[in-house]
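TL;DR need structure tokens for one chain.
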Amino acid sequence: MDKKIILRRMLKSKFFMVGCTVVILLVVLAIAAPYIVHFDPEANSLSEKFIPPEGLSKGLDGHILGTDQMGRDIFTRLLTGAGSSFIIATCVVAISSVIGTILGLISGYFGGIADTIIMRTTEVFMSIPQIVLAIAIVAMIGSSMPNLILVLVLTSWTSYSKLTRNNVLVIKGQEFVSASKVQGASKIRIMFRQIFPNVTTPLLIQISQQFGMTIMVEATLSFLNLGIQPPAPSWGNMIAGSRQYLTTAPWTVFAPGVALMITVLAFNFLGDGLRDVLDPKRT
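>> reply
TL;DR here they are.
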């Protein structure tokens, strides 16, 4: 597709522009957090607990979003938690997309027993709700960042496998693939040089949407005390630890809750925008 057409579609797609802008802003804030914050995200200061949001009245030296029940600065913990969430989501999406895509390519191209084994395994994993399977595995192996990444990979690769396999079944019957076979191209070359480039568009859309969903699942596990463990900040454990103060100090719950909502929405908007931009049927 012509680059000028892609750029024009990007500028025309409200979903893409909003999603991309918010995602870039969130990533920049997470990366720049060590240079922005002035408080220790894990240090308690009981003399400063439940300070209401001060906004920018004191600049970055004030408690912009207030403090929680332990006197910890919420803005600092939000940015620090965002960094952890993005690291986990990036690792999970990268690993699960590679595993799922390779399995989908093998399943769709070779068919037969390989297709049967891979697809039946995929269907078994997909038949169990992701959050239930994640809770069961974390409960068995313990909660830590590596274990959390492992659990989320085990519950995320199936969507990539199914998506890739379905697209490969359509593409492998096309003339350019048959021409490559006639010319003696190896199966590996056909899979990765001929077929794979034609399944990247749906994969990119899936990756952007899966990123937001992974952050949501990570927050859910942390809320249930099965993810990132306090005092290390995570949006999920921030909500869990402050929910009893919802009526007396609502900012302690609203801040991480709104941050989580905006992040997930931004990645969903980005996915919808990518669909508008990359869909070859659009004019």
